[in-house]
Design brief:
mainly alpha
Length: about 190
């Protein structure tokens, strides 16, 4: 608790106020009351500073990465039961999601995007794979529709993962395009 306050905006603003009071004393503006002035300016700075932002949702990116890695290892261990190429599709989806989860602060800045990633990692991708793997092996191998459903679901999830990544990296792409325009205009 104390360490959190030491790095808070309120403490930093209070310190600036206290240093201003000390500066006034050193400049000869205030006399023997300087300790009272320093404390008063510290208190004013601390009281006037904006409060820290409230974070109701903890950063769960680490948990999501673990969930994603667990899913990949589970799918890899069941590869013989999965239709051809679906394991690779799951890995491609996981690769896109892992890249997004590697930047937790940036992901947390967009709640809609974060929700989409959480939904893909915790619900959509596991549900698709589990639904197929929970079918009896003999049934899934005889019924082509079950494999086709899994392939279709994974294709949809891969497309969604790419749409999410495009939204996530849109500012970077725009910055790159701006730089290209700048370079072209500079040479003209």
């Amino acid at each position: 608790m104390m360490l959190r306050y030491l790095g808070s905006t309120k403490n930093l603003a209070g310190c600036v106020g206290g240093l201003a009071g000390l500066g006034l004393y050193l400049a000869g503006v205030i006399g023997w009351l300087w300790p009272v002035v320093v404390v008063a300016l510290y208190a004013a700075g601390a009281l006037l500073a904006p409060p820290e932002k409230v974070r109701l949702l903890p950063d769960a990116s680490g948990e999501l990465r673990v969930s994603l890695e667990t899913l990949i290892s589970s799918v890899s261990s069941q590869a013989s039961r999965m239709p051809e190429s679906t394991v690779d599709t799951v890995r491609r989806i996981a690769e896109v999601l892992a890249d997004l989860l590697a930047q937790p602060a940036r992901l947390s800045a967009d709640p809609d995007l974060r929700h989409s990633v959480v939904r893909l990692v915790r619900t959509d991708l596991p549900l698709s794979v589990e639904s197929f793997l929970n079918l009896p092996r003999w049934f899934a191998s005889r019924r082509a529709g079950a494999a086709a459903e899994l392939v279709a679901q994974l294709d949809l999830l891969e497309a969604e993962a790419h749409r999410i990544a495009e939204r996530f990296y849109a500012a970077d792409v725009d910055r790159q395009a701006d730089h290209t325009r700048y370079l072209r205009d500079r040479d003209a």
